[in-house]
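Subject: Sanity check before I submit

Could someone independently write out the structure tokens for this chain? I want to compare against mine line by line before I put it in a report. The sequence has 102 residues.
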Amino acid sequence: MGERTKELIALGASVSAHCQPCLAYHLGKARELGAGEENIQAAIEAGHMVENGTSAAMAKYVDLVLNQAQCCPSGDSKCFVVEMRWGDQEYVRSRLLKGNVS
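---
Independent answer below. Compare away.
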């Protein structure tokens, strides 16, 4: 993979990570390596798509945790188990116990 491609990927990642200094650095570096404005715009749009996807996924997860939490089999009121399915992905289980994720 070429350096210009790496910088375009880093540019999109900077957008999705909300890292302003990273965005400025990788934009300058991509231009320095000869990336065209069309490719730069495509990388930024890809970063926004990732950002929007993670935001939507987190919103669904928060809703699930708030509305479908269950008590642990031990009866400990400080933990819960969450099971979910998104599209074709496998079930995900999260167990939160006394503030620690395990």
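---
OP: Matches mine. For the report I'm noting this point. The two ends are 37 Å apart (CA to CA).
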